[in-house]
Every structure is written in structure tokens, then in C-alpha cells.
Amino acid sequence: MVDPAKGRRNHSGSKAIPQHEVDARLLREKTARLRELRLAQEAARGTPDEAAAGKKKAGKARGETRSLSDWLATQQNEGRRG
Length: 82
What we know:
By secondary structure, this protein is mainly alpha-helical. Helices cover 61% and strands 0% of the residues. The chain is built from four helices and no strands. The longest helix has 27 residues, at 19-45. The protein starts with a helix and ends in a 5-residue tail after the last helix.
């Protein structure tokens, strides 16, 4: 029988790079490229603080708290609890 993997092996004497290392390198390159695109988009929109402020939901300030019963009632009204 002919082993198809033998034809793909590197016979130059150097070690072959394991597939998981190749995949990891490709993932790092892709992540870096996407990060650059995201940062460019944020820069085009304005400062990161302005972009983050646009994403925040209108609601109570951080320091304010509400009771557990109020929170549970809200969850039930929004259909999150059965």
C-alpha cells in the first residue's frame, strides 16, 4: 500500500511544524488583523470613551441599588423568568 502522508513529508531534514502550531499562528494573525480594524473603526468614530458611551444602556447610575424583589419583578415582566 502507498501511504499518502509520505508524499507530503518534508525530506529536506528540517523539522516540520505541527499543525496545531500553524493553526495557532494563523489565529494570532487573524486576531491582530481584526484588532487593527476595530481600533481603526473606533478612531474614525471618535475617542473610545465616546464610542463606549454610545453602547451603554440607559438606566440607573452605578451607585444606585434596588431591592431583589424589584429586580425579580423586572426579570419576570421582561419574560426572563417563568
